[in-house]
Design brief:
The chain is an alpha+beta fold. It has two domains: 53 residues; 94 residues, Ribosomal protein S6/Translation elongation factor EF1B (Alpha-Beta Plaits, 2-Layer Sandwich), CATH 3.30.70.60. 54% of the residues lie in helices and 24% in strands. Strands 1, 2, 3, 4 and 5 form a five-stranded antiparallel beta sheet that branches. A hairpin with a 3-residue loop joins strand 2 and strand 3. The longest helix is centred in the N-terminal third of the chain and has 53 residues.
């Protein structure tokens, strides 16, 4: 039995089929994963470029941002509630001493919130009209976030302190 060899046409067809399969292997196992990796890296590079552009923009605006922060930094606190409330009461007493007022302070419980808490103090004042108005003027001119929730003024028979005032002062403490 003699083995017959492949004809020229069959050898060409076999060579072409082998090349097609080799190309399919190269494309599917080597080139396509590399192409996907290249595409993924390009997407990461675009995202990184956008982040870098935003950071560069923030760096340009840094002085304005720091200035805005300094404006509101006085209202931020890291102190515990009791210390902040005690400091607030001391400030009120100092303010009253500056106006020669007799005050009676009744602190209320602090009301916590999402971004800070509210400290309320009930203040009873025996004073003259001028001293009371000077105290209220200095209180409202304070650099703290202070609000007068309630103000009641009544006249008394006393010649030393003809006016009695009862007010509730709220101060907002912002947590950083």
């Amino acid at each position: 039995m003699a083995t017959r060899g492949f004809s020229l046409r069959e050898r060409k067809l076999g060579l072409i089929a082998g090349l097609v399969m080799a190309m399919w292997v190269v494309l599917s196992w080597i080139a396509w994963p590399r192409w996907e990796r290249l595409h993924e890296l390009n997407q990461r590079a675009e995202v990184s470029q956008k982040k870098l552009a935003r950071l560069h923009e923030l760096a340009k605006r840094k002085p304005a941002i720091e200035q805005a922060y300094q404006t509101y930094a006085a209202f931020l606190t890291r102190d515990p509630d009791a210390a902040v409330q005690r400091a607030f009461l001391d400030e009120l007493e100092e303010l009253a001493r500056a106006e020669n007022l007799q005050i009676n302070l009744k602190p209320r419980p602090a009301q916590p919130g999402a971004r800070g808490h509210l400290i309320s103090v009930e203040v009873e004042i025996d004073a003259t009209q001028q001293a009371l108005l000077a105290f209220l003027d200095r209180l409202l001119g304070w650099s703290n976030l202070v609000e007068i929730e309630r103000l009641r003024i009544s006249a008394t028979a006393s010649s030393d302190y003809p006016i009695k005032a009862n007010l509730v002062i709220d101060r907002v403490i912002v947590k950083p």
